[in-house]
Amino acid sequence: AINFWKDPNAESCCICGEEDAGEKHGELSCPYDYLVSSVGYVPCKARLAAWRDDRDVPSGHRAFLRRFVRVTNLPEHCPRPARIAELFARFGPLRMWHVAMDAPAVCKGFACLVFERREDAEKAIDELNCYCFDGHSLRIDWFYPSA
């Protein structure tokens, strides 16, 4: 089962929005990558504090990162992860999505999605937070970078 999708027409990194400026990089080598961070677990409050106070992050990157949505409390049994992307795609085009899986049809309980527009991400968060998905009340929020 496919549990990761990236817009094949994307000309920039889906994490930072950086277009080819000399050295092209992908999502796995992006300096703003917080999904495969070497920092390890950082509590949400610490990430939020760093997010608000970090003056080194250009405002364009901040605006771009505000398209990232995290979904938690997904059911463990998930034979078709694309259903989650389909649920969110009703609110606007997605640039990328990823459902964390332990094995085929065994979900780790979380996913992340990148919307084309911030407004679509905001609407999805507002309308789908606490949405009942296969008997689980989903927790939908912004995805903050690691501190």
TrEMBL record:
Entry keyword annotation includes RNA-binding: yes
GO molecular function, one term: RNA binding
Spans traversing the lipid bilayer: none
Domain of life: Eukaryota
Signal peptide: none
Keywords attached to this entry: RNA-binding
Protein's recorded name: RRM domain-containing protein
Ranges for domain RRM: 67-145
Organism: Aegilops tauschii subsp. strangulata
